Amino acid sequence: MKKIIVALADEGLNKRFQNFFQKEDFYVSTTTDGKKVLEMIIEDPPDIVLADIALKNLSAIDILKQVHRYEEIKNVPLIVFSRTGAKNHFDDAITHEAKDFVVGLSEPPEKVVLKVKSHLGMQKTYLLDVTLNDDATEIIKDLGYKDKEKCKNCGASVSLHLLRNLALGKDIFKVSVICTRCNFKHRVKTEE
Question: Could you write out the DSSP letters of every residue in 54-78?
Answer without folding.
Answer: T-BSS-HHHHHHHHTT-TTTTT--E
